[in-house]
Write a structure and sequence with these properties.
The protein has one domain. The chain is 88% helix and 0% strand. It is built from 8 helices and no strands. The protein is globular. The chain starts with a helix and ends with a helix. Keywords: Membrane, Transmembrane, Transmembrane helix.
Length: 129
């Protein structure tokens, strides 16, 4: 059963990864980033690419190596890291983003909130058992 929970988390992580290919257009990144200095634009893009790579790596680990995540010491450390990572992301979703952004994209706000909560709870539970 826990293998399926991790694999489902991997599917969610792939969905989050794919959403990042639509976010720039939906959120008008080109318009908004055009107003910033080049260094800020470059740092923003580099951070986005690296973060996307990390989320994709988490997805692949969950889909390809779920047994190792549950049984190997390094896997347990990765589960604990992912638990902290996604718990922090839940807090950002609820306490940092402005309400106007959440109102502008209500469906995405709910979908991402549910996804982040699942990931935080799943990885927290599995890292503690």
């Amino acid at each position: 059963m826990t293998i399926y929970a991790i694999q489902f988390a991997g599917i969610i992580l792939l969905c989050i990864t794919s959403a990042n290919f639509f976010a720039p257009k939906k959120m008008r990144w080109s318009v908004n980033l055009a107003k910033t200095e080049p260094v800020f634009r470059q740092v923003f893009i580099v951070h986005c690419v690296f973060l996307l790579g990390c989320v994709l790596a988490m997805a692949l680990a969950c889909l390809i190596l779920p047994h190792q995540l549950l049984t190997e010491p390094l896997g347990r450390v990765l589960l604990a890291f992912m638990a902290l990572f996604w718990t922090a992301r839940v807090l950002v979703q609820f306490f940092y983003y402005e309400r106007s952004i959440k109102r502008e994209f209500p469906v995405f706000n709910v979908l991402f909130s549910v996804a982040f909560i699942y990931l935080a709870v799943c990885f927290s539970f599995l890292s503690l058992t």
